[in-house]
Amino acid sequence: MAEAERILDALDAVLRERRTADADGSYVASLYARGLNRILEKVGEEATEVIIAAKDSAGGACDRRDALVGEVADLWFHTLVLLASQDLSSRDVLDCLASRFGLSGHEEKASRSRPT
What we know:
The protein is built from six helices and no strands. It is mainly α.
């Protein structure tokens, strides 16, 4: 297993564990306690911060690129919290991405079922 997968698996385990932890002692448990809307708000906030950091890093300054990486890490983390709140994990996303290998983006998008 690749190092990235080990890290994601470890995060998944911690996030599952925190679903039953005391909200006063854990940031993640406090997010779960506040409910789905709060988790979604955090994902939205982090996505906005990624956009701002990306615009700021466009000049290539190393410290701004580091800030972008940090913001993406925050977004990924909060997205993992969202997945765990829905009884999903990073493995579900990795499996989905793996199934898309070999497809063009246009083919993949066309293959999705459209809501009626």
